[in-house]
Amino acid sequence: MATKDYVKRGRSTKPAPIKAKANPKGKKAPTTGFSTKWAALAVILVCGLIAGLFFLSGTDVPETAPVTPAAIIAKPQPAKANTNALPPKPEEKWRYIQELENKKVIVPVLTPKQVIAEDKPTKPYLLQCGAYHSQAQADERRATIAFQGLNSQIKVSTNDKGTWFRVVLGPYKDKRLAMDDQNKLQQHGISPCAIWFWE
Predict the structure, then answer these.
(1) Residue 169 contacts residue 152 (beta carbons within 8 Å)
(2) ∠115-118-124 over CA atoms, to 5°?
């Protein structure tokens, strides 16, 4: 029995075309590169821009005919209001300006004894740095003041709002001394401290 050559028989002289892989989801394969349609549009736009610039640079500005005095026709122009002029000054409605200008201030003349008596207060000053309903809060504020090297005391007073524990420093003969301690305490965050007359 003769053997058949199936290999030579099934061969063709043309190469088989390469089949594109089937997209299982049915989507189009993404295109890469720049589309020729957009490239042609870009070239047209650039050529149009160059042509327009060339045309504008080559055109001359049209010359206007010289204007003769006979050609000018005088047109009546409306009278312009002076915009820089100020409006008239309004009439003064108030009388206090004239009263203040004509008012005389009488300063009393004090004798040296009266000046000394007014400069010196009749009562000493105190510096109050808190008023609390609780003795414990007053003690805590007093301890904070003691850390600054100043002595304070707690004065107890009662009024219609209840019992108050006031933390006070003093008495001070001069108000300036009370203000010095007030500034010192304020620099260390202890405030507000008010200056009152000693009672």
Answers:
(1) yes
(2) 140
